[in-house]
Amino acid sequence: xxxxxxxxxxxxxxxxxxxxxxxxxxxxxxxxxxxxxxxxxxxxxxxxxxxxxxxxxxxxxxxxxxxxxxxxxxxxxxxxxxxxxxxxxxxxxxxxxxxxxxxxxxxxxxxxxxxxxxxxxxxxxxxxxxxxxxxxxxxxxxxxxxxxxxxxxxxxxxxxxxxxxxxxxxxxxxxx
Length: 176
What we know:
The chain has 176 residues and is an alpha/beta fold. The protein has 4 helices and 7 strands. The protein has a single domain (22-175), classed as 2-Layer Sandwich (Beta Polymerase, domain 2).
């Protein structure tokens, strides 16, 4: 047996978790206050997360408000297909600040889903916007680069691989 003392369990872990939760709560409360004039609905899916729904017309205003307040950074922009029966897609803009995660959710119709670019505010969003256009068919008005990111240049228009109604077999038949 070693002569060195073994580490003893401490009560620090629960205290650290409480401190992180308090920090997340304060950050999310600040975000709610910053965005309150544009929010149409909100939810707390987890204790450290806040989802807020905003209209596409208010997206750039909301993003600018977050950046002006130095609230976090854009960690990802993702698409969500709620299915053909729902008739809706969503664009989700995920911002992180310390232990807090804020998601700006923009409801979009399936036929001509359109959001404004945020590249003038966050230039690095171009990569995410290209993926959203290519994989979900969301039109990003004013984005500086519309070239394909993942799919080949000859990929057929109107075929969006991450939509629930995408059918690779039908695409293959059309190619034959």
